[in-house]
Amino acid sequence: MSQSAAPKSILFMCVANSARSQLAEGIARSLFGNSIRVQSAGSRPSRVNPYAVEVMREIGVDISAQWSKSVGTIEPTSVDTVITLCAEEVCPVFLGKAHRIHWPIPDPASSDPSLSREELLARFRTARDAIRGELERFALEEGL
């Protein structure tokens, strides 16, 4: 996309729509306000991870009302930019005619019982900050 064709709608996607894409949705809403429609979805939606809500609250963004959605519920014609956030897993596929961008952000969520609460929060903060950096660069490139 170029500055003359700034996106009107962004869809963030990862597998469970519980962590990375939820972080991205919240950050994008805070950065862009109502100037761009922001959505997120996943191929196997679950629930918004409580650690995602917590680390977003740390930067003054409330995502507690967001929920996990299936990519199948997104109207393809309502999206002109898709940003996938998968790193080591297979990203969901979106069948619309959207511009595609890939940011390989490692999944901060883990079912490893040896990870402490602080270690999990650190993983979520790392993902949040990486996504925020990507979105800030994206905004500059797109003239948003």
Protein traits:
alpha/beta; 14% strand; 144 residues; 4 strands; 3 helices; 33% helix
Explain what this protein looks like in three dimensions.
With 144 residues, the chain is an alpha/beta fold. A four-stranded parallel sheet has the order 2-1-3-4, covered by helices on one side. The protein contains three helices and four strands; from the N terminus they run βαβαββα. Helix 1 links the parallel strand 1 and strand 2 (37-42). Helix 1 crosses helix 3 and helix 2 crosses helix 3 (117-142). It has helices at 20-32, 50-58, 117-142; strands at 9-14, 37-42, 81-84, 99-102. The chain is globular.
Number of strands: 4
Q: What is the CA–CA distance across the termini?
A: 12 Å
Give the H and E element order: EHEHEEH
Give the biggest beta sheet: 4 strands, parallel
Radius of gyration: 14 Å
Tell the overall outline.
Answer: globular
Q: Give the helix/strand class.
A: alpha/beta
Compute the average pLDDT. 91
Protein topology:
Elements: E1 9-14, H1 20-32, E2 37-42, H2 50-58, E3 81-84, E4 99-102, H3 117-142
Parallel strand pairs: 1-2, 1-3, 3-4
Helix pairs in contact: 1-3, 2-3
Short description:
With 144 residues, this protein is of the alpha/beta class. 33% of the residues lie in helices and 14% in strands. It is built from 3 helices and 4 strands, in the order E-H-E-H-E-E-H.
